């Protein structure tokens, strides 16, 4: 395992941040505990706008949306992803690792995604 870690090249790439992050509303994909206990409180403190939420458990998404005054609860992942084709949004992906790749493939080419969970169940998968 240590050999695997040492074979990963280091990057000096520092991504540029948006000039005004308030111009990039957030769409949450996933409405679990990490979203309600971590992400949404942090976004509220920072003043970041949350535009919408989607979860495979629609009732959970409706409940979280209502509690946090999220303006849009999407019916499908396709509906949520289609939003990015018309405006700059940040997708906050808080889903199990086995769902991340398929969601990323659905996002439009210029979408921004914040992946909040590991990309795999272990280092080799990631």
Automatic annotation (TrEMBL):
SUPFAM superfamilies: NAD(P)-binding Rossmann-fold domains. InterPro entries: NAD(P)-bd_dom_sf. Keywords: Membrane, Transmembrane, Transmembrane helix. It comes from the Eukaryota. The keyword Transmembrane helix applies. The chain crosses the membrane at residues 22-43. This is Gfo/Idh/MocA-like oxidoreductase N-terminal domain-containing protein. It comes from Rotaria magnacalcarata.
């Amino acid at each position: 395992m240590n050999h695997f870690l040492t074979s990963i090249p280091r990057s000096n790439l520092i991504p540029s941040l948006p000039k005004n992050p308030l111009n990039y509303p957030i769409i949450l994909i996933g409405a679990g505990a990490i979203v309600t206990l971590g992400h949404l409180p942090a976004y509220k403190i920072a003043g970041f706008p949350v535009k919408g939420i989607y979860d495979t458990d629609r009732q959970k998404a409706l409940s979280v949306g209502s509690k946090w005054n999220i303006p849009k609860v999407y019916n499908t992942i396709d509906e949520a992803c289609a939003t990015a084709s018309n405006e700059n949004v940040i997708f906050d992906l808080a889903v199990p690792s086995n769902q991340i790749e398929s969601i990323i493939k659905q996002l439009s080419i210029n979408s921004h995604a914040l992946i909040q969970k590991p990309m795999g169940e272990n280092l080799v998968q990631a």
